[in-house]
Amino acid sequence: MIRLTESQRHFFTLVSEAIYANPFAEEREAIDTRIAGLFPGARVENLIDETIREVSTRLKALEPSGLPRIDRVEPKDRSLVENALVFEFFYLFRERFDALTHRQLEAEDTSLTVPFADEAHAFFHDRGFSTKQFCHYMALCYQLRRAFLLIRDSLVGTSRAMRNLRRDLWNNVFTHDIGLYARYLINRMEDFSTLILGETGTGKGTAAIAIGRSGYIPFDPVRKAFTESFTRTFVSLNLSQYPESLLESELFGHKKGAFTGAVEDHKGVLERCSPNGAIFLDELGEIAPHTQIKLLQVLQERHFTPVGSHLKTRFNGRVIAATNRPFEELTGSDGFRADFFYRLCSDIITVPPLWVRIEEDPSELTALLNHTVTRMVGKESPEYTEMVREVIDRQLGEHYPWPGNVRELEQCTRRVLIKKSYMMTPTRQEASSLAETLTQGLRKGEMDIKELTCGYCAMLYKRHGTYGDVARITGLDRRTAKKYIEEFDQVD
Ligand SMILES: Nc1ncnc2c1ncn2[C@@H]1O[C@H](COP(=O)(O)OP(=O)(O)OP(=O)(O)O)[C@@H](O)[C@H]1O
């Protein structure tokens, strides 16, 4: 039997901590520093390579054959060696997991065959792992790598607020202790609902996608593929887009003939969500009390009934919800029912406003511009980034508050790329030029009622700055006013 020496035990404990540490948290840096202590003189960027080499060397040294089998390790040391072997596997295969993640993103909903499945299986088999253990570690390593890429690449920014956000998103997926998560919680995350708060355009939807697509997806050794594509594991619904009468049907689905216009069966988001997935309820702040009650029942009982049906259907996914209403408003008298609110809040994640990020770290703006320009132009373009930055510095100044946050920054970048200039929105100046356009349209008699209503709401919004004011002046409800304004912005 293989028995670890004290020094081996110390080293493999460190490795176990490293593999399961949150890569976006400071604790990870602390572990790296401790590992660095083992390699005096090594450069930080080579640290991981040094560690991988050292893990392999030490694992090989455990057996004369150079191939330590997990079933030959003394029980009390087994989990340490198991973790070290998983660490070795993870780093040997991580680039292939990355390539798979990118290819899967392009292939969308059909789950791809894993080209390295046989090689991976042989790795675990040769080291004494069962097929069940192999499948588990395949799924876990894919999940770890996918979550890392999705969180790192979609939410850029070096400010403390952004680093904290990435750390919190990781914990939202894996909890603060991946070891425990992997052992007990993998199939029990459905009860962990998440509420994402933040101003409009800060990246709440982006954060929701990152965590929604980072769930654990079992591996099927027969098909040599994961049981589904991660692109199918996230279903979103913008609650403010639907009138009350249609919302329940969008959430729970309906049966043919359930109401006038229900000409065929319709699957709601809850039914479309896969068991490994999450539904994203955007603009949750707009939801009426009786829909809150129905959703609360689903969260508690895990069953829902489509409109016009008597059959209960089980819902296994997670719920992620977002709203740009301030926290105090949500818990106030005309906000959420308290029971609904608390059921939703296993975790609350707040996405920081852009001005806070820039204030914390002025280089954040450049990093974001770089990211945005690269996305728009299709490759890194330092000269365009520089040009956009120059216009922003000149026209908006250092302390511009970015009321539309990252979405406004994207819009600004587009406009500067086209016009080399950016007029801020919303401004009274824009409101009056919009009023002028509307008046001209009325004079010419060319506008239909929708254009007129959307344009009028948008003008009021630019003038007053809140949906509430638009609703008060027009007599529309807040949700409808907002819908018209968004429709106008999309056409604009
Ligand atoms: N940290 C970030 N790094 C890169 N892009 C970002 C970041 N945050 C947001 N974005 C981009 O900004 C845009 C707006 O983000 P998103 O739609 O997620 O915001 P939101 O808070 O959900 O908005 P709303 O409140 O209007 O629903 C998206 O194109 C998104 O990709």
Automatic annotation (TrEMBL):
Stored Pfam families: Sigma54_activat
Positions of the Sigma-54 factor interaction domain: 155-418
Gene3D superfamilies the record matches: 1.10.8.60, P-loop containing nucleotide triphosphate hydrolases (3.40.50.300)
InterPro entries named among the record's database cross-references: AAA+_ATPase, P-loop_NTPase, Sigma_54_int
Keywords per UniProt: ATP-binding, Nucleotide-binding
UniProt xrefs under PROSITE patterns: SIGMA54_INTERACT_4
Superkingdom as given in the UniProt entry: Bacteria
Protein name per Swiss-Prot or TrEMBL: Fis family transcriptional regulator
